[in-house]
Amino acid sequence: xxxxxxxxxxxxxxxxxxxxxxxxxxxxxxxxxxxxxxxxxxxxxxxxxxxxxxxxxxxxxxxxxxxxxxxxxxxxxxxxxxxxxxxxxxxxxxxxxxxxxxxxxxxxxxxxxxxxxxxxxxxxxxxxxxxxxxxxxxxxxxxxxxxxxxxxxxxxxxxxxxxxxxxxxxxxxxxxxxxxxxxxxxxxxxxxxxxxxxxxxxxxxxxxxxxxxxxxxxxxxxxxxxxxxxxxxxxxxxxxxxxxxxxxxxxxxxxxxxxxxxxxxxxxxxxxxxxxxxxxxxxxxxxxxxxxxxxxxxxxxxxxxxxxxxxxxx
Amino acid sequence: xxxxxxxxxxxxxxxxxxxxxxxxxxxxxxxxxxxxxxxxxxxxxxxxxxxxxxxxxxxxxxxxxxxxxxxxxxxxxxxxxxxxxxxxxxxxxxxxxxxxxxxxxxxxxxxxxxxxxxxxxxxxxxxxxxxxxxxxxxxxxxxxxxxxxxxxxxxxxxxxxxxxxxxxxxxxxxxxxxxxxxxxxxxxxxxxxxxxxxxxxxxxxxxxxxxxxxxxxxxxxxxxxxxxxxxxxxxxxxxxxxxxxxxxxxxxxxxxxxxxxxxxxxxxxxxxxxxxxxxxxxxxxxxxxxxxxxxxxxxxxxxxxxxxxxxxxxxxxxxxxxxxxxxxxxxxxxxxxxxxxxxxxxxxxxxxxxxxxxxxxxxxxxxxxxxxxxxxxxxxxxxxxxxxxxxxxxxxxxxxxxxxxxxxxxxxxxxxxxxxxxxxxxxxxxxxxxxxxxxxxxxxxxxxxxxxxxxxxxxxxxxxxxxxxxxxxxxxxxxxxxxxxxxxxxxxxxxxxxxxxxxxxxxxxxxxxxxxxxxxxxxxxxxxxxxxxxxxxxxxxxxxxxxxxxxxxxxx
Lengths: 314, 556
Known about the structure:
The structure holds 2 protein chains of 2 kinds.
Chain A: H1 2-43, H2 71-77, H3 80-100, H4 102-113, H5 117-128, H6 135-146, H7 152-159, H8 171-199, H9 203-211, H10 216-240, H11 249-254, H12 260-263, H13 266-276, H14 280-307
Helix pairs in contact in A: 2-14, 3-8, 3-13, 4-8, 5-8, 8-10, 9-10, 10-14, 13-14
Chain B: H1 2-31, H2 35-39, E1 49-50, E2 53-54, E3 58-66, H3 79-92, E4 94-102, H4 106-116, E5 123-125, H5 128-136, H6 144-150, H7 155-166, E6 180-184, E7 190-195, H8 196-202, H9 210-222, H10 224-228, E8 236-239, H11 244-247, H12 249-253, H13 262-267, H14 280-292, H15 309-316, E9 319-325, H16 337-344, E10 351-354, E11 366-367, E12 372-377, H17 385-396, H18 398-406, E13 413-415, E14 421-423, E15 446-447, H19 454-463, H20 470-481, E16 484-485, H21 502-518, H22 524-555
Parallel strand pairs in B: 3-4, 6-15, 8-9, 11-16
Antiparallel strand pairs in B: 1-2, 5-12, 6-12, 7-9, 7-10, 13-14
Helix pairs in contact in B: 3-17, 7-17, 14-21, 15-16, 21-22
């Protein structure tokens, strides 16, 4: 009796919910279709990694590769260039993480302490400008500034009687140029999200801290940073997922023949061997490997932070 | 009202989406016809063609290189494309559309177009391995049956290319033919250039041996103050680019044994820069020495493909010597190196071709081209093979290609009293300007001026460079042909190990050659040997072995 009475009620509730919001769901169709067409359907092509690629056959008809379909994985891992690219990708990304990840947090903290609002806004705007420059432009600027004999900085150093610095032509120096330019390009932009999180911190906490006699640094340490912690953790997990991922334009544009040994990363390997060398199966295998490792990293990091009592991303 | 608006919005989005999906699918359908249908040259078009003219208008797309030159016209739409379009419509009732492809990234772009199924009906590339790779995947039309069937309709094509170039790539076993080879009319390839005015200023004569060349470079370096004044620190005695194999090819040729056998040249000949020829390493060692003595442009490895920094340094007058295409400094009229040099430095400033790289036998060997140039192929998506072949025939017809090569009298050429043709550079921005010398990008079946009469052609060639003194061209022409040597033409069919290896191995070659050159001299052997070992391990050796086996099979 009870259920019978309840059911129509639930039904009616459901009906009125759909009646009320169906247009929203209709709108949702668009992004969902986007994901299906451009993200999920292309995923069926992952099987190219296990098959012999042919331009005219459908991906379902292509013959399986040797070694139970794993031929191209074996090929990749016995390819010296791939192993170098893997090493370089991990190295550059770890350096990016160590130096590039804290940079926007520090900048956000500093900007937040600025009392003069107008100055703060101008600084912030200038800081995120480089985000809109493409890496091709940045690499052109880098050549003008850092080239060994014609770069501005080295010309100045030479005029002052100092030794020139091989920013671009010595592999060890190049790595730092790469990391530095990466920070320069992205620090301002990444600051935005932290600044937004800071504005969400309850001002009463600052007042209470001030009452207790906390100075600026104490307030930063005990109020702002803990307030930022969830944001930091989410971004950290996401960037761990990219530890094996690699951008293409940054290493490709900044790299040159002097530093090929450290500048070749997985994405440039995929470009040379896959797109230019037409070895689509091999490079799909590499891409798949990259994605799988990325997912493992994200899940592990997520599990770890959950154990520490944070919310994580899932 | 609001509600209706949102409904309308949502509906219109869905319709737009559905429409988008619809055209996408339609595009896919036309882009991937079943290979069997397009491979069959059956009895389709013959009935619909009368006197070489289609009854119903056909439509084809044709690749054209886009060089992006300053002051040029859009390569797909200009005076010359109009000439071709009108002619094809008039003579064959075929509508032609041009598809621009970047000259310096052509292989990459063609790859993308082929992979996407949107490649033009007539494709042109310098890379045969690319064609072979796609042919193996079933992405290229086999031309053999079409050529056999329509031979009578293509007299001009046969006349120009002859059996030799038409069947150059014929597979000896399977009888398949994936590409036609354009005719290289003149086979000059590379020259060594030095600044004539600098030689005069320093009282030097033209170098005739490697030693003299080296001394000249040293003199350039040590007299930078005299030659460049306040820009002395910008002095570059010898400049090369990332493409060392090309840009020092004449120098390397002097280190190769003079009497290499056909077999040796063929099996080591996969790399078109001759990397695997014996003696190469000693050539690189010399460059390494020069680099460390600051005789070579110090920053060259920083600049990649298509970068114009080096050209600008030449134009500005900082570069003493270089090796490049046989007429490189004289190209491009007003925008070229020669014109700029004269404008920026003075009327005496000019590069002149010299011949310094003497080999063990006292010869100035340089590798000249064979009779083949670009390769023309039809992707499997081409459903107008006859119309496409008629296009090639039309473009090979003497009157048509002659007009394209020399343009209009008074605009791009003048007729001299002796009947020879003097090309003049149309001013930058002129609608009749040629984007490439002799419109080579449109005359895809021929590379090099041909006026019918060989004497007239050679005389005219010297005139062929607007604004450049005839003597420079004549010298360059003679020098480039002096002791020219061709690599053998061998027909052994496909070498499996080469598939897809071209770009990868070229990249490796460039990288390790550069690293060897910039290494300190005591590290040179280590760097070069490691690089060569890696090159061989990464596929180079497999190619040599397979080539050797194939050669011995057909020629022993």
